[in-house]
Amino acid sequence: MIKDRLKIATIGGGSSYTPELIEGYIKRKDELPIKEIWLVDIEEGKEKLEIVGNLAKRMVENAGLDWEVHLTLDRREALKEADFVSTQFRVGLLDARIKDERIPLSHGILGQETNGAGGMFKAFRTIPVILDIVKDMKELCPNAWLVNFTNPAGMVTEAVLKYGDFEKVVGLCNVPINHNMLESKLIGKDVNELVFQYAGLNHHHWHKVFDKEGNEVTSLIMEEMFKSNEQVLENIHEIPFFEEQIRDLGMLPCGYHRYYYLTDDMLKNEIEEFQKNATRAETVKKLETELFELYKDPNLKVKPEQLTKRGGTYYSDAACELIASIYNDKRTDMVVTTRNNGALDDLPYDCAVEVSSIITGAGPMPINFGKFAPAERGMVQIMKAMEEVTIEAAITGDYGKALQAFTINPLVPSGKIARTVLNEMLVAHKKHLPQFAEVIEKIENGEIK
Amino acid sequence: MIKDRLKIATIGGGSSYTPELIEGYIKRKDELPIKEIWLVDIEEGKEKLEIVGNLAKRMVENAGLDWEVHLTLDRREALKEADFVSTQFRVGLLDARIKDERIPLSHGILGQETNGAGGMFKAFRTIPVILDIVKDMKELCPNAWLVNFTNPAGMVTEAVLKYGDFEKVVGLCNVPINHNMLESKLIGKDVNELVFQYAGLNHHHWHKVFDKEGNEVTSLIMEEMFKSNEQVLENIHEIPFFEEQIRDLGMLPCGYHRYYYLTDDMLKNEIEEFQKNATRAETVKKLETELFELYKDPNLKVKPEQLTKRGGTYYSDAACELIASIYNDKRTDMVVTTRNNGALDDLPYDCAVEVSSIITGAGPMPINFGKFAPAERGMVQIMKAMEEVTIEAAITGDYGKALQAFTINPLVPSGKIARTVLNEMLVAHKKHLPQFAEVIEKIENGEIK
Amino acid sequence: MIKDRLKIATIGGGSSYTPELIEGYIKRKDELPIKEIWLVDIEEGKEKLEIVGNLAKRMVENAGLDWEVHLTLDRREALKEADFVSTQFRVGLLDARIKDERIPLSHGILGQETNGAGGMFKAFRTIPVILDIVKDMKELCPNAWLVNFTNPAGMVTEAVLKYGDFEKVVGLCNVPINHNMLESKLIGKDVNELVFQYAGLNHHHWHKVFDKEGNEVTSLIMEEMFKSNEQVLENIHEIPFFEEQIRDLGMLPCGYHRYYYLTDDMLKNEIEEFQKNATRAETVKKLETELFELYKDPNLKVKPEQLTKRGGTYYSDAACELIASIYNDKRTDMVVTTRNNGALDDLPYDCAVEVSSIITGAGPMPINFGKFAPAERGMVQIMKAMEEVTIEAAITGDYGKALQAFTINPLVPSGKIARTVLNEMLVAHKKHLPQFAEVIEKIENGEIK
Amino acid sequence: MIKDRLKIATIGGGSSYTPELIEGYIKRKDELPIKEIWLVDIEEGKEKLEIVGNLAKRMVENAGLDWEVHLTLDRREALKEADFVSTQFRVGLLDARIKDERIPLSHGILGQETNGAGGMFKAFRTIPVILDIVKDMKELCPNAWLVNFTNPAGMVTEAVLKYGDFEKVVGLCNVPINHNMLESKLIGKDVNELVFQYAGLNHHHWHKVFDKEGNEVTSLIMEEMFKSNEQVLENIHEIPFFEEQIRDLGMLPCGYHRYYYLTDDMLKNEIEEFQKNATRAETVKKLETELFELYKDPNLKVKPEQLTKRGGTYYSDAACELIASIYNDKRTDMVVTTRNNGALDDLPYDCAVEVSSIITGAGPMPINFGKFAPAERGMVQIMKAMEEVTIEAAITGDYGKALQAFTINPLVPSGKIARTVLNEMLVAHKKHLPQFAEVIEKIENGEIK
């Protein structure tokens, strides 16, 4: 039985996103009878935890709420009897992300911290940690829901489902909601007047849109999108898609599809950023320093506007809405990462997919999607295969698997360059890749070249 | 664009169910801006159409509504520019159903007017007529939704999808809602406090139930069901299921599963009814005569209580709610017959299934179900195969196909008896089976034995 | 590495079939460099083992071969370092089969010792024993191939694959080869001039036939079959199929399909046999007594003609050919029971199917079949589901599973009668059903009714 | 009924490969009772046809055979009542291949005349022609088998199956047989002592190998391959694979996988060849000139050794063996491109795949393969999707489809470069792309950029 008053724990509570999360809870105070919010972080994040944690406390107080906000480095204490656990941690902090992006770029290839070489390394670092968290949850709060925003959200969620033997996990991302907001605006509709159907993988999904009269308006949005200059997502460079190719797709791509459909221009742009020391990771690091400066202000009692630029807009709407929907069995229509079970016929039955779902008290129930047209199908299938091999590499620390994952990833050119980047990144992230210790030693010894 | 004021046509408008339908519309008057209701029937049903049509008019007037109620024998006029078309007709009227039930029983086998020998003949008579209606709709109201209650609702809906080349069709049945109502009562919950997940075929589905806290309560309901004597459905004999077998299923069966799980007792009961001239068809015919007597009363201005016994309880909640949900994009969770598209992995991609769906302005979006356990899987697969062969027989008038359908139907023993019953029924329904004319002639001539 | 001289062990070596097996080996003496043949049996079968074993020795000697024929009750000694193990044992001997057939018939339902109520009980008795044999094999001869003829061959083979965790198993049956021989004769061809493609389950498969010019001759054979009175199989009653239904199938059924397509007549015939104490089991028992009398004759040095009537014709061609094909990587085209792996798209990926395969040194490689038409599909799917549930019941001894298997088996009417027959058979076979001990006690105590 | 004496027609009969084909027929003269060989070519190929045709005549005469060798430009006359039709034509001749390879390389991307940008253009040019040939065959020799070697053999065969509505087609390639020959040699076995199981697409397949004792020797071959320097295929640059990645695959790749697994080195090598005007197409053109000089020699009466360098070694063993196997129902184990029908579970049911098959009188029956591991699965799935979109573009002449195919092809970087290369190639091949006429005009007018 769910408790009358909730305990919510956030792993990576010292994140700059936390104020948005708190704002989201406050907005839903009537739906979410929170008792305790536990913000957890690690020793290295202690200072940030205190800064943002104190802001969180001020926000709660300012809203006139009696919620307890706890700041702690003791994860197990935070998890104990929690009702919901959200994860937004970053193993190796932003410095690791800078390596994820800069090392590949230094060899002239995309870093892409979610599904490219960078994202694979983020998976290598994160998956052992999330499985450790799940192990604790099974002991300390076996009935809690795990809401994961940690990227690469698709792979991390699949690892929990397949290797953590834990079903109550939902992966979440703010990309779909940003599309919904922008696209409804583009055709002069309120977001609630449209039905969106998403299908694919995290940062690799397409969607169709219908109006309330049942007419498909996907093409209409497409044409408006081609005319418009609106930016969907802060964190990726917005080059116009090729209209003929998108029309042929018959579905709306997500912003991240630029990496696949317009690889050369995206790479060119990132190399420019790399040369100016302005990769996304570096930009974010700068933004975060500024944000934390703001957060320190004892007079700040609400989420500052500047957070929007960070790239996580609508996370509150996504994460808090998900928690509220599960708690209240709201049957909201949301896009989440969850177990496929045949909702997408072209992908393995037991893998994780990102799909429009109804959020019930029993968790997400995916709306069936069926089959893709070939152009989407082939792409999403190779991405899923890459995700599976990456996860296996993250679990086993096997060099062949890691090299395989690099080889089949469409964002990484295969051959010598893949091997070089892989080896360099393994060494660079040594501290956070205990499972690869032996392999890294061999690289350092020149046994693996 | 959907019109501001709606035109709704009902084929088989002279049915005794009509008052419930009208009541359902009236209940939803704020959601459904109806302008015209057209009740259509055929020459033989003219008298009943007038009786029930006049009651409908009195009901609408009594509710203080300005809706026009038209009674007509001209189907094309009724369909013209309609927004919704519902079908509740019965080719050959109740006398045909009496034959559907009595002929098999006279040979000691179940009639079962939905999925047994009787149901197959109902499909043979109905499918050519519904395809004719769809042909008219494509000409006269191509954007209207067809809401089909005519049994066998699964086969009729599949025929429209596959052979009518018409996507805007939804099949509907009152069995799921009856289960929902009873089962929530059994465990002391309000129906809205539970999440029901249905999967299968019309009159051959199973379901799981969850509470708002996400706990599966299927077993709890099962155990209460075993203790209780409550009747789920008026129209089928309620013998207790074998507890061990149902527990092994792991899902709740529907009332009609008694025909498959308890065949011998069901047959015994029907043979008793047959001997007393009290088959369900004969009982219903008597009930209908009484109902129409009641309906004639010019002082009757609401749906009479006695209609409940007829067996169609909650049709109003189902049918009118479906129409209101599509019109208003309500995203209600309902159980409907719609195209599979992989929602049920164990059944063909393009067939019709009965499945929990979200009803949007663009029609039903099935909630993905995935795979069944073997015990459900095998049954639902042979039933679907039987449906497919039956539909093919109904379309082609091929004797081999009809015999095949009889042979593989689990409710019909195969061999000489199947052949004898098939031949006798073909001859008995001759008038309503033009597609089988040649075959019937051969039977009458003794060329087919 | 396979040895130069082979050790072959036969579990159930005291079977009346053994002379045919020995004949088969002798026929293939140039392909099969046998060193030792071990015939194993249990204490109760000792006498028969000696009789038939001595005949085997005389046959080998008569053929001028130096093969050693060992007779033993020590299974482990026989299995030690064997190269091939064949199984043809019968738990409970023919008396158990008599119960399998007579108990259901005493309640007016088919016994059918392979896939009906009788076959399910044969599975309950056999599966624990075969798993025990496999356990020994994994220890004593882990590289040997297990060639299983023990019925129900499909379920027994699936149990080994799924629950025995042993891949080197092939199930074998003489039905396909009998069809091949008869059908080629029917259209005046040599059996090698035709290409047969079989697909389905043991005793539940269909096939297509092509001539060497690539023309499908399935229909041609069908029409000849309708004209002919030839008997395909000795052991089942040969009632003519309904021509229209078989034509609609588009594939040739197997002899056992009479139980499914002509249930009433088959039942009528079996009830007549039951009343005359001449069920197949009783007939076989009589035949066996006669056979063993013949076998005793010290002058008999070859397989006696009378064995043909026993019903196992062509077992030698099937079993010895399989062993010779594996040993010599002959790439023969044979019909065997093996793991599906998608060869039959309509059945689970990991189940056992009976399918035309190429027999290589690495075992059978199934020829891909693809999808069935609906009439075959539905039948084979429910049969497979029944097999899966039966196997689970055999493994777990769970009463609900056993009742479920009875309920969904198309040859067993469901309801009280199924339950009554199940309970009576459980008690009757008590001695050979240790896994059901608790359940049987409850039936005897009246706790299960 | 197949005739006693055969008529075989070869479209593209003027090809330099023809002598090998003739040699193959001669080698099989006892199995193939040939009456007439028709070599067909187009006006532009007349001279080569005469040269190679006369060599063919001399070869036949030299072998002491009475076969008629006809040289013709009249395709319809050649097809009339043919028993087998083989296709080895090249639309636009080698000059078109030079463009296929050089244009992409001039922009720094791989040409790859089978599955890369070059191969897609070869498909665009060839598919309309093959469909035209099939149209003639349906009229003039509807029972003949079409044996296609024209590259891209996978796409061309799929186009015939899907859009030509013609089932009697088999695609053929010499890559598998070259692997078989080399790999058996590597481990010191005769090719007939091993069982090879291939699965995938043309020029994109993997295989497993077993010895006659049933042991998998895939890894053994892998390790020998890593040690060896043997060249499998003349026509592709043989860079060593990364051992760790291949071991992780668990299957042996084909030579063409270098393009996918070692893209950067392969590109580097091709750019060097490009700069030296020594792309494969240019080399082949030179070789062909030399070969035709040799062919002119009236004293040459056998296939000259130099043909081996051309890159088509073992085509005779493949093509003539296929024809002989079908004609004689030899049930040979060969690797062919044929309809999937579920043999490879990870690819669409109705697509063409390259798979180990048994060649019967009724054509190839694929050996079931089942599912790939993720690393193979993702690659083969995107390649199939690319093939499907390419075929659609070839049929429709739609620019969006062509751009889509370029975008998702793993050998073509996406974005501006893909578009530039596509446009340039469309214009360059204008003469042979009537279906793209409107699109090409727009490119020339600057309406498409």
TrEMBL record, chains A, B, C, D:
<protein>
    <submittedName>
        <fullName>6-phospho-beta-glucosidase</fullName>
    </submittedName>
</protein>
<feature type="domain" description="Glycosyl hydrolase family 4 C-terminal">
    <location>
        <begin position="198"/>
        <end position="412"/>
    </location>
</feature>
<dbReference type="InterPro" id="IPR022616">
    <property type="entry name" value="Glyco_hydro_4_C"/>
</dbReference>
<comment type="subunit">
    <text>Homotetramer.</text>
</comment>
<dbReference type="InterPro" id="IPR015955">
    <property type="entry name" value="Lactate_DH/Glyco_Ohase_4_C"/>
</dbReference>
<dbReference type="InterPro" id="IPR019802">
    <property type="entry name" value="GlycHydrolase_4_CS"/>
</dbReference>
<keyword id="KW-0378">Hydrolase</keyword>
<keyword id="KW-0326">Glycosidase</keyword>
<dbReference type="InterPro" id="IPR001088">
    <property type="entry name" value="Glyco_hydro_4"/>
</dbReference>
<comment type="similarity">
    <text>Belongs to the glycosyl hydrolase 4 family.</text>
</comment>
<dbReference type="Pfam" id="PF11975">
    <property type="entry name" value="Glyco_hydro_4C"/>
</dbReference>
<keyword id="KW-0464">Manganese</keyword>
<keyword id="KW-0520">NAD</keyword>
<dbReference type="InterPro" id="IPR036291">
    <property type="entry name" value="NAD(P)-bd_dom_sf"/>
</dbReference>
<dbReference type="Pfam" id="PF02056">
    <property type="entry name" value="Glyco_hydro_4"/>
</dbReference>
<keyword id="KW-0479">Metal-binding</keyword>
